[in-house]
Recover the amino acids of this structure.
């Protein structure tokens, strides 16, 4: 609502912050220095607000924002549209990252790589959504951002992983 972040110890009802007529299809959140919130609207667009750590707000910036903004489109062009699924890393503090699946099955990811290629876009932070390396021809059904690894399930039933293969997290014997 444009105000500074506040910590409350009780549930607080909020009004739908999206444009008139747009409902909320999915909600996700991630945490580093402070909270970041991501909403997938029924208009198939992603909205973000909060801490800009590692570029998680998808604004081509590390700045925090206190009002809802559309996540930028692939490689920072336009706004992110035609989104069917949203996932944000919420299993550990830090490593704020998010991924979506578009209606054509393409995954896009942005945010922290954890210096371990966690989102398939190299070892630096990615400030706007990008296509993870090796997924150019994949139709992805599910993607889940994790603290060390981001697994994906494609239309052939194959599971692929990008990230830090700590203690065999990929499950492929490596």
């Amino acid at each position: 609502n444009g105000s500074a972040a506040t910590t409350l110890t009780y549930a607080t009802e909020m009004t739908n912050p999206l444009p008139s007529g747009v409902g909320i299809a999915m909600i996700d959140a991630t945490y580093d220095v402070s909270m970041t919130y991501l909403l997938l609207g029924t208009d198939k667009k992603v909205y973000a607000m909060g801490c800009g750590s590692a570029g998680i707000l998808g604004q081509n910036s590390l700045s925090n924002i206190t009002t809802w903004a559309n996540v930028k489109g692939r490689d920072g062009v336009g706004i992110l549209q035609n989104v069917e699924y949203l996932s944000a890393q919420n299993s550990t503090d830090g490593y704020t990252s998010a991924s979506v699946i578009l209606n054509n099955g393409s995954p896009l990811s942005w945010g922290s790589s954890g210096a371990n290629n966690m989102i398939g876009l190299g070892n630096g932070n990615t400030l706007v959504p990008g296509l993870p390396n090796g997924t150019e021809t994949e139709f992805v059904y599910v993607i889940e951002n994790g603290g060390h690894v981001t697994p994906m399930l494609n239309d052939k039933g194959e599971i692929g992983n990008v990230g830090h293969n700590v203690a065999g997290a990929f499950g492929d014997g490596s």
